[in-house]
Write a structure and sequence with these properties.
The structure is a homodimer of 402-residue chains. By secondary structure, chain A is α+β, with helices and mostly antiparallel strands. Helix content of chain A is 29%, strand content 24%.
Chain lengths: 402, 402
């Protein structure tokens, strides 16, 4: 008996060592020198959070476990997830009812607040990492918008060589974040700048300017209350979203594009202008581009369905939608060089089905488009990084082909 | 009696209305649409934090009140400060022992984590606000440092006109954050870009490039443990700080300056190069510039004493310090165009006295310098905004005068 018990203890502790100590390493999304969160070779994430006097601490991964953390003797609470999908996972910690960010994590703007996230590396994938290739710059700019009556902040990626090839002009991709995020999302979370650097270095994508604006716009004088406290899905909320959508449309077309074209060496005209966005930014992209096909000829919706806000989430009527822009598929294919839609296979069913229904509607009507599924990823940034990596090489090729 | 009691209640409630409801407005440092923290015309700050199940919630202003918040019936905890000094005040909230950021605030990197802050406006001061003047850009750049063996992130302010005046070259100010902060501090917290925009528009400062690097550097292969867990003020900690300081010095002089000079249209040479920093960044500035007077001729220390890390915090021996660079004051004044030191009058006594002692040492030795006190401000960003606004107009004037 004693021997058996001893053997169990030894075997048990070895098993624990293999499984728990394993090869955990601090996540690259941590603040300097923070040892937690950490990730092991099986993509499991261990969170550790100090709350010595709390009665209950929960971890809340937005697309992952929502679970009670376990109090340790040292006042820290810990939790280890099952293996996670690769990519950047937003999370918060709930301390006795207070939902807060984990101070060990870098801050990422999501859910309308500065939240935490943990980066789970994708084995073998280097396309979104900084590499020894020429790097573009990400520039903060402020433009005054007569639409909103405010100074607005945007980020602009300029490709390598922009400063030295002073006679060259570049096409422009307008790239939008999702709901609850802001203009920092595509570089901080999405690493769009590194994706573009790597695509341009390997000559898979043309050098381009990428403009990342804030998708929340409110007409001058419009009160905050108009956009707050509306029940989700209610007619009032739909109206508020529409107001924001049209204010954003006007801000992009009347303030942002003129500002970019007069402050950067852009190639102008619809053949040199693309727009894409994720989730809410995808909806905004469809809204802005289809209403301004005089300005845009490349369109991308990343996990963002054109009809998500249509009553009943019905199939898209391609004959009548967007004032009949797609009614004649042959004419549409000539006019719109690229219509790209994509979704992750692990996204919530409602979101996935919305995009799949859109894809089916376009197929049935023979509207030329590209449809892409990201295997094993959720309504999160790894889906959108992959989307951008597939989308960007298809841009601004039409003119060259002519 | 009853009438008197009634009058007191009425008067009391009117008084409360005037004092409590008053003219509180959401702070400009809040995330979009957050109604708290809010600030009134007397610079009082009201914090509101949701923690329905917490037993104790404290607010922790780093240079202000540290106090218990009061639980309200709706699960929110509130606290109103006495009148605060103008400027950006870092704070955290402590929920049952967990020190966290307030999700209603924008995130600012300070104290080695993403913390909260509230902006208390300075009446009548517009020098650090965005105005209707030409705006420069703040550019994110990544440079590979052989010193640290890593990709390093820096922010670079380019003045208005940089992109259009393609034959012009510009002098460079290297501008460093404080301890526990990072390269984002000078623009996010300090609004250095707006300060420069406004100074340049009014022709008070010359158009210049401003480089903001991360002050934490660690030589390639140096382990994390070397810089952690050392008792404050101990010889081990001093050694770790020295290692970091010299690694940073090498990173600046061997990696950063060459990168900037080859990627931006800089005016090179010591007459066109300045360095300044706040607190820890001030110490780093003295260390880097005095060891490289071949590279720099303008030097600024904002709340950062040259001798803070000297044993016993003694007065500076100007004859021997920095290899005798100041030993001959006349020669020094000819060589160094500007030595600028400043401090806020409300800074903790130890910090204030350190700078005042440095000033006295320089005075006694007749070492030419500028000394500035910021009235009523603490070891916080309003001091450093004012410092930059006084410092920048003095830069790069020497050559023109010749």
């Amino acid at each position: 008996m004693r021997l058996t018990a001893f053997a169990i203890v030894v075997l048990g502790s070895r098993f624990c060592l293999a499984q728990d100590a394993g090869d955990f390493k601090p996540a690259t999304s941590n603040v300097l020198d923070a040892q937690y969160p950490r990730v092991d070779g099986n993509s499991r994430v261990e969170i550790r959070f100090k709350a010595p006097d709390a009665a209950k601490v929960r971890v809340n991964f937005w697309s992952g476990p929502k679970a009670d953390m376990v109090k340790q003797a040292d006042g820290f609470w810990t939790f280890t997830t099952p293996p996670m999908a690769p990519g950047l996972h937003y999370y918060t910690v709930i301390v006795d009812g207070a939902e807060v960010a984990d101070p060990a994590s870098s801050a990422y703007f999501g859910g309308s607040k500065w939240a935490s996230a943990v980066e789970v590396p994708e084995t073998g994938a280097t396309y979104y990492l900084p590499q020894d290739v020429p790097h573009g710059q990400v520039r903060e700019v402020w433009y005054h918008s007569k639409v909103t009556g405010t100074w607005r902040h945007a980020l602009v990626y300029t490709p390598p060589g922009y400063d030295t090839q002073v006679r060259d002009r570049f096409p422009v991709l307008y790239l939008q974040h999702g709901g609850g995020e802001d203009e920092s999302g595509w570089t901080r979370q999405g690493r769009a700048n590194f994706i573009l650097d790597n695509l341009i270095a390997s000559k898979r994508a043309k050098p381009m300017i990428v403009v990342m604006a804030n998708g929340y716009a409110r007409r001058a004088g419009q009160s905050v209350a108009d956009l707050r406290g509306k029940p989700f899905g209610s007619p009032e909320m739909r109206k508020a979203m529409q107001d924001m959508m049209t204010a954003f449309e006007e801000d992009v077309t009347q303030a942002l594009i003129p500002f970019i074209d007069s402050n950067f060496r852009t190639l102008t005209g619809r053949d040199n202008r693309a727009m894409a966005g994720l989730s809410m930014g995808g909806m905004q992209t469809f809204h802005v581009t289809f209403n301004h096909l005089d300005l845009f000829s490349y369109i991308g919706g990343f996990s963002g369905a054109a009809n998500a806000f249509a009553p009943g989430n019905a199939a898209l009527d391609t004959k009548t939608a967007f004032n009949g822009a797609m009614a004649d598929p042959a004419a549409f294919a000539k006019r719109v060089h690229l219509l790209w839609i994509g979704v992750g296979t692990k996204e919530p069913e409602g979101m996935r089905q919305g995009i799949q229904r859109l894809h089916a509607s376009l197929e049935a009507a023979k509207v030329q488009h590209v449809y892409s599924e990201s295997p094993g990823t959720d309504h999160e940034w790894q889906t959108w990084r992959r989307n951008l990596e597939d989308f960007a090489p298809r841009l601004f090729q039409a003119v060259a082909k002519k």
